[in-house]
Amino acid sequence: MAQEQNNNNPNEQAIAELILAIRSKDLAKILSAYHQQNETGRAAQLKFCFETGESQVSSYANYQNIAAQCIAAHGLPTGIIAGLNNSDRINFFMPALQASGAFTHTNHQGNTFLHALFANEEQSPPPFNFIRSLLLFERNESLAKALQIRNQHGLTPLECYFIYNLADHKLPEHELTALFALIEAERTDNFIPQNANLSHIKTSLVKRNIALSQDSQVLLIIASYYQVDVSTLYHLH
């Protein structure tokens, strides 16, 4: 009966095995408990680490380190990427992303964690200043590469922000400055934005009832990204 229940709840079994390994305080056993799971089981284990770390402040660093050790040793499950869409989750998993060089990893939709973070309407505005600060460290240069990755719809993370999350209220000055810095960082290695996406972005903004007056910050940001004149963008259909 117990075996049947475990088979019916593979994620619960994966978490139970990780808990036993953690209680042993043996890193090799912890890594083995993670390694033996499929992607779904690993994602469940990582979610458990995050939720436990968030609920038990005194254990936060320990569970954060466990997640980082597991991911560095045996990889980041693609199912986790879409969930890395707010500051709390990014802060928890950042050591893991750094240790495993996973900034440019994508899921089945071609999205990096930056696509998920910048498109999340519940995280508005996105933490541009935080991401910019990460770019200042040499070990995080691959973040600039992540900014250039296009998903299955041909959109970069910043273009996902324009389509799903850019609002008509002004960004705080420090976030606006950071956003422009990210735009510049994206342009490394002769990266060129695809102006063909402009019409799609403007259509999305109109559908979301975003004000598109010629003096709006919205058009200024988009014009700066695509390096076009604001008046040209304003009259684009």
Strand content of the residues, in percent? under 5%
Total of helices: 15
Average pLDDT metric = 90
Proportion of residues in helical segments: 55-70%
Shape: elongated
H/E series: HHHHHHHHHHHHHHH
Radius of gyration: 20 Å
| Number of strand segments | 0
Poorly predicted regions:
1-7
Which class of secondary structure composition applies to the elements? mainly alpha
List the helices and strands and how they pair.
Elements: H1 2-8, H2 10-24, H3 27-35, H4 39-55, H5 60-74, H6 78-81, H7 87-100, H8 113-119, H9 128-135, H10 142-148, H11 157-164, H12 173-186, H13 198-207, H14 217-226, H15 230-234
Helix pairs in contact: 2-3, 2-4, 3-5, 4-5, 5-7, 8-11, 9-12, 11-13
Write structural notes for this entry.
By secondary structure, the chain is an all-alpha fold. Helices cover 63% and strands 0% of the residues. It is built from 15 helices and no strands. The N and C termini lie far apart (63 Å).
Short structural description:
With 237 residues, this protein is mainly alpha-helical. It has helices at 2-8, 10-24, 27-35, 39-55, 60-74, 78-81, 87-100, 113-119, 128-135, 142-148, 157-164, 173-186, 198-207, 217-226, 230-234.
